[in-house]
Amino acid sequence: MRRSAFVGAIMVLAALGGCSGPAWKVSSETDAITRKSSAMVTTGSYKAGSSPFADPTKMYPVVRMAEGDVYVGLVSTHESRNPVLSAQVWIDRNEAWTISSQETPIFFALPSGRLLLGLDPELSKQAGDRGLNVYKLMGGYTVTGGAKARAILHQMLAGQILKYRTFGIDQTPSAIYEVVLDESFSQSLKAAGIDPTTL
Description:
Blueprint: E1 4-10, E2 25-31, E3 37-42, E4 60-66, E5 69-75, E6 86-91, E7 97-100, H1 113-116, H2 121-129, H3 134-137, E8 141-144, H4 146-158, E9 161-167, E10 177-180, H5 183-191
Antiparallel strand pairs: 1-2, 2-3, 3-4, 4-5, 5-8, 6-7, 6-9, 9-10
């Protein structure tokens, strides 16, 4: 299994004046084995420091390219992140998209140290009993690719507000969070080398 190390966030645009949500940024992630870096577009809580993932209890919207395809969903690289069974994202008044952690490609998995050391046996048992991949539950990414990702991305480019929430392994929903889809989103995609017109 590949493991990745989060490198850091690179601010490409400041929040627009009067914007009620955080600006979108370009972040970089480097594979711990191959040392290859890839860019992703995300947003988060920046008040606590330079990392966009300052709040370990939350996940944040993400768009990134991997293996020649675009992936859209949520991400958290914090060591103490919670298991995620699924996520819902919706743009403006469009219907909600449901993304299962189990449809996330395994190469995105960033299992926590506790999981790798076998310190969460009950969680592993629950996942096994339900036929779930525990590394995807705890992998830090809940994303989808292919036509579904492209459809979500095009809605995001045409929309104004993205709302999202997650569901734990017991189906308990998180709070609903929202992010402004301002000009920084499309410009960050461009800075990350993601061209929606070619997808």
